[in-house]
Automatic annotation (TrEMBL):
<feature type="binding site">
    <location>
        <position position="173"/>
    </location>
    <ligand>
        <name>FMN</name>
    </ligand>
</feature>
<keyword id="KW-0820">tRNA-binding</keyword>
<keyword id="KW-0288">FMN</keyword>
<dbReference type="InterPro" id="IPR035587">
    <property type="entry name" value="DUS-like_FMN-bd"/>
</dbReference>
<dbReference type="InterPro" id="IPR018517">
    <property type="entry name" value="tRNA_hU_synthase_CS"/>
</dbReference>
<protein>
    <recommendedName>
        <fullName>tRNA-dihydrouridine synthase</fullName>
        <ecNumber>1.3.1.-</ecNumber>
    </recommendedName>
</protein>
<keyword id="KW-0694">RNA-binding</keyword>
<dbReference type="Pfam" id="PF01207">
    <property type="entry name" value="Dus"/>
</dbReference>
<dbReference type="GO" id="GO:0017150">
    <property type="term" value="F:tRNA dihydrouridine synthase activity"/>
</dbReference>
<dbReference type="InterPro" id="IPR001269">
    <property type="entry name" value="DUS_fam"/>
</dbReference>
<feature type="domain" description="DUS-like FMN-binding">
    <location>
        <begin position="14"/>
        <end position="313"/>
    </location>
</feature>
<keyword id="KW-0521">NADP</keyword>
<dbReference type="InterPro" id="IPR013785">
    <property type="entry name" value="Aldolase_TIM"/>
</dbReference>
<keyword id="KW-0285">Flavoprotein</keyword>
<comment type="similarity">
    <text>Belongs to the dus family.</text>
</comment>
<dbReference type="GO" id="GO:0050660">
    <property type="term" value="F:flavin adenine dinucleotide binding"/>
</dbReference>
<keyword id="KW-0560">Oxidoreductase</keyword>
């Protein structure tokens, strides 16, 4: 796939997730074959107010692979100003993504995220403003859903507005906002959006395996898939999907030691990036995902919820090895 001047490597894209996809997490996924990764979402309005935490969400001094930043908002002028400010700050990124899919009430109550789906012309205006601020060389993508609810399945109309105003790619989560994350996704609705536009479309939602990725591509006719929560604690999922897309033999499953080494390395990088005090509370949820499928997983997850210092990670890993004997 080619987006502007960027040649996109074969593989699934790692989805943005608030509070989870920090630099350490993104680097891990990129190193295991994610086609590109996306920052946690940052508020365009907060950036315009000079909020340092919002700028910090986007900064990655040494991205691994292709890196996109994601902004949310409901005012085209504010979005454009935020993009210019990000550029002025010297924040490096390869692509910019507009969030039109987040279902969280604190986002939708401001008119942003999936609330935008109720106003397709506004979606088009947001893309047009971002396109003008970015210039013509940087790929502009949109993360969206198939609609707000069953009475407002505006996905096709929104997709046409986005494509017509300068978006280079759409990533479509196959649920309405009302459905939140309740399975299953509507592959048919994603397929309708793909058929309605002449730009690449990624299918998103419920991909937990390489076989599932191939099935979703067949059902939707999309150009690729985006994977989120299923990759947490299992970055090797990107290696498996990439092999399947290339028609290659699947890679060997990671050993227990490889899983624990990845856990330790990820949390270590988190501590290096933001300090132990801030990193460890966030590391608790990351660690829990690595416990999937292990003997004694319930008790191990309880221990994960109590991690306070980096040294606790080694104690956790020792407990993992003991319980697997």
């Amino acid at each position: 796939m080619q987006l502007k001047t960027l040649q996109i490597p074969t593989g699934a894209v790692f989805a943005p997730m608030a509070g989870l996809t920090d630099a350490a997490c993104r680097h891990l996924m990129a190193d295991h074959g994610a086609a590109w990764t996306v920052s946690e979402m940052a508020s365009a309005k907060a950036l315009c107010f000079g909020d340092r935490k919002s700028f910090a969400l986007l900064k990655d001094p040494a991205p691994h692979g292709l890196y996109a930043i994601q902004l949310f908002g409901a005012e085209p002028e504010t979005l454009a100003k935020a993009i210019l400010l990000v550029r002025e700050k010297g924040i490096r990124f390869d692509m910019l993504d507009i969030n039109m899919g987040c279902p969280a009430p604190k986002i939708t109550s401001s008119g942003a995220g999936s609330r935008l789906l109720l106003d397709p012309p506004l979606c088009g205006a947001m893309v047009a403003a971002a396109r003008k601020a970015l210039g013509g060389d940087t790929p502009l993508t949109v993360k969206m859903r198939i609609g707000w609810d069953d009475e407002h399945r505006t996905g096709v109309e929104v997709a046409k507005q986005c494509a017509g105003n300068g978006a280079d790619l759409l990533a479509v989560h196959g649920r309405t906002r009302e459905q939140m994350y309740i399975p299953p996704i509507d592959a048919g609705a994603i397929a309708a959006i793909k058929q309605a536009v002449d730009i690449p479309v990624l299918a998103n939602g419920d991909v937990t395996s390489a076989a599932g990725a191939l099935t979703l591509l067949q059902e939707t006719g999309c150009d690729g898939v985006m994977i989120g929560r299923a990759a947490l604690g299992d970055p090797w999922l990107f290696e498996r999907v990439r092999a399947a897309l290339l028609g290659e033999q699947p890679p060997a499953a990671p050993t227990l030691r490889q899983r624990m080494d990845a856990l330790r390395a990820q949390i270590y990088e988190m501590c290096e990036e933001k300090g132990e005090y801030l990193a460890m509370p966030q590391a608790r949820s990351q660690a829990m995902h690595y416990m999937k499928g292990l003997r004694g997983a319930a008790s191990l997850r309880r221990y994960c919820s109590m991690l306070e210092h980096f040294t606790d990670v080694d104690t956790l890993i020792d407990a993992v090895y003991r319980l697997q004997e």
